[in-house]
Amino acid sequence: MASQDGALTPDDRDFVAALASGLEVIMAFDQANPRMTLSEVAAKTQMNRAKARRFLLTLHALGYVRKQERYFELSPKALQLGYAFLSANNYHNAIQKYLEDVTLETGESSSLGVLDGKDVIYVARSAAKHRLMAITLAVGTRLPTIYTSMGRMLLSTLDIEERRRILSESDLVAHTSRSITDIHQLEEAIDTAGKQGYCIVDQELDSGLRSLAVPIFSGGGRLIGAMNVSTNSARVPLERLTDHILPCLQQKALEIKETLI
Questions:
Q1: Does position 240 have pLDDT exceeding 70, yes or no?
Q2: What confidence score (pLDDT) does residue 140 get?
Q3: Mean pLDDT value of segment 183-198
Q4: DSSP strand pairing (209-217 vs 119-126)
Q5: The pTM is what?
Q6: In the β-sheet with 199-202, what is the strand arrangement from edge to edge?
Q7: Contact (Cβ atoms closer than 8 angstroms) between residue 93 and residue 108
């Protein structure tokens, strides 16, 4: 049976469980787990070893996975899956220029992110020289939607039912002492972002990381994603975010809207 948005559910006869499981195996590899044994893949995907083995060997045969002794890792061919998205959404090259302009004008890193369930995925990025987080942020990086400025900004554009579904699937975790872990406070923060047209998340995901995001729309009104600037709280006060960096982001958002149909 299809869901309300027309997507198939796992019990629908047209749902291909093998394809879903294969993609799940691919997604199991990430920055924290770039190389895994069969047992580790099985545990991470909650599959039995026999099932995980079949999918790993199939992906290996297709060239998406490399195998070295006991370890499996994604091959460069797996990049084609992400490239297909970027190619189909040809705004990438145009927006990259604007992100670089933001970095040039503010001296800070700027990114474009899109929603993927309870995660926000970086699809374009212009990095400044400042190192802001313990992990390296790059195209393809996934971060928890509810603890990023881009994620909350994008959540504010959804209808209430879809937003609450994503919130119900998200982990309210105290990454820092500033993290919002109360669902009602989180909903208020998202509502505020929607009303004011921008979102600031101040050291909720990583101590010292302060970020600001605005929504990005095409000229036809289609939501493309959210654009942010991430800064170090010790170096950049909140006043600079709102008084200097926010107008820059808003101007670039307007220019993107005028450029993309």
A1: yes
A2: 83
A3: 97
A4: unpaired
A5: 0.70
A6: 142-144, 119-126, 109-116, 223-232, 209-217, 199-202
A7: no
